[in-house]
Amino acid sequence: MKKKIILSILLLVQILIVNLLSFFPDFVERYYSNGLYQYISKGSRVFFGLFGFSIGDIIYGIVIFFIIRWIWKTRKTWRQQYKNNILTVLSFCSVFYFLFYLLWATNYHRVPLNEKMGFEKKYTEEELVSFTERLITKANQMHLQIVKNDSTKVVNPYTVKQIYGKALNGYNKLAQIYPDFTYKKESVKSSLISTPLSYMGFGGYLNPFTNEAQVNYNLPLYNYPTTTCHEMSHQLGYASESEANFIGYMASIHNTDLYFKYSGYVFALKYCMRNIEKLDEEKAESMLPLINKGILLNFEESHQFNDRYSSFIEVIFKGFYDNYLKLNHQKDGLETYSKFVGYLVNYYKEKDL
Questions:
Q1: How confident is the model at residue 334, as a pLDDT?
Q2: Which of 31-45, 78-92, 260-274 has the lowest mean pLDDT?
Q3: TM spans, by residue (predicted)?
Q4: 335 pLDDT band (50/70/90 cuts)?
Q5: Which pLDDT band, with edges at 50, 70 and 90, does 314 fall under?
Q6: 334, HSE (Cβ side, Cα atoms, 13 Å)
Q7: pLDDT band of 271, cuts 50, 70, 90
Q8: pTM to 2 decimals?
Q9: In this structure, are 30 and 147 located in the same domain?
C-alpha cells in the first residue's frame, strides 16, 4: 500500500515536471533530444532491431491482456477495496507515464523544427496556390518518368521489406544537407495489428517503449515509402506530426529511387490540395485538371482504401488521438498533420522543388 501511495504521488510530480519542461524547449533540445534520447533510441533500435517482428505490438498485447484480467478479477471488489484499486490504477499510470516520457515523449517539448531551420509556418492562400501549382508540375514530371503515360497510375514494384531497406537511402542523402536528420540502426517493421490500425484510420505509429517504427502493411504501396519515412522521423525524436510529415517528405524526395520521390511529391500534393479545398473549394476543383490522370487514380486508390476500412472505430480512436495530441501541446490536434503544408510553402519560397 505504501509503495502505491508513493507512486501515485510521483505521478502528480511527473506531470508537473513535464509541463514545466514545456517552458524550456532549448533545455529539452540540448539535454534530452540531442543528449539522453540519442543513447536511449539507438540502444533500443539496436536491440529490438534484432527481431524481425514487432516486439512492441506483443508487449502491448500482453499488457492489455493483464489489464483486462485485472479488471475482471476486481470487478466485485470496488465497494470494499475502492481505495486500494484506485491506488493500483494510479501506480500503473505513474510507471507508464514515467517510461513514456523518459523513453520518447519528452521530445514533444523540444525546439520547433521550423525555428531550427529558420522559416515561418504561416502562409497566404495565394502563396499556397502558387506553391501547389509548382508542386503539380513536379509531381507530373515524376509520374511521367515512371509510367511514360499521364493516364496510368503508378504501381510500386517493391515488396514491403524492400521499401524498408530502401528508405535509409533517402535519410543518408538528406543528412548530407541537414546532419540533424542522420539516421542509424534501422528498426522498421510491419505492425502485427495492421488491420486494426486500418480500421482506426492510422498508417502506422512509433512504439515509444521499443522505438520500433510500425507501418500498416495494408496501405496502398504507392504511398508506402513516405509513410515509412514519416515513422522513421519519429525515431529521430521528432514527435510533432507536422514535423514528421515534413521530414518524411524530405527523406522521400531525396531518395535516389524514383518511386520514393514520386511517393513524397504526391503525398505533399494531396495535403496541399486538401488545404486549398478547405479555403476555396471552387479553386481546388479548377486545379484538378492540371494533375495527371494517373496521379488522380493513385489518389482514388487511397480513397478506396479509406472507404474499405471506414467504421465507427476510426471516429472513436481519432477522437482519442486528437485529444492526446492536444494534451501534448499540439494544440491543433489531428489538424497538426496538415500543418506541415506551412513548412512546405515557406521552405520552398526561395528554393526549387
A1: 58
A2: 78-92
A3: 46-72, 84-104
A4: low
A5: confident
A6: 12
A7: very high
A8: 0.93
A9: no
First CA to last CA across the chain, in angstroms? 61
- Helix and strand numbers, DSSP H then E, in the chain: 16, 3
Compute the distance between CA of residue 189 and CA of residue 187 in angstroms, rounded to an integer.
Answer: 7
Predicted confidence at residue 139, as pLDDT, reads 98
In terms of residue numbers, what domain contains 333?
A: 113-347
HSE-up of residue 190 (Cα within 13 Å, Cβ side): 14
CB under 8 Å to 189, separation ≥6 — which residues? 52, 53, 54, 164, 212, 213, 214, 215
Is 322 found in the same domain as 176? yes
List, as own/partner pairs, every contact residues 26-30 make where C-beta atoms lie below 8 angstroms and the sequence separation is at least 24, other chains included: 26/111, 28/106, 28/107, 28/109, 28/110, 28/111, 29/110, 29/111
Segment 235-244, tens digit of pLDDT: 999 999 999 9
Residue that finishes a domain, picked among 109, 138, 173: 109
What count of Cα atoms within 13 Å lies in the side-chain half-sphere of residue 264? 25
CB 338 within 8 A of CB 275: yes
The neighbouring-strand residues paired with 205 are 214
Same domain, 143 and 19: no
The answer to whether residue 9 sits within a structural domain is: yes
* pLDDT score recorded for residue 337: 64
Same domain, 225 and 99: no
Measured in degrees and rounded to the nearest 5, phi and psi for residue 324 equal -60, -45
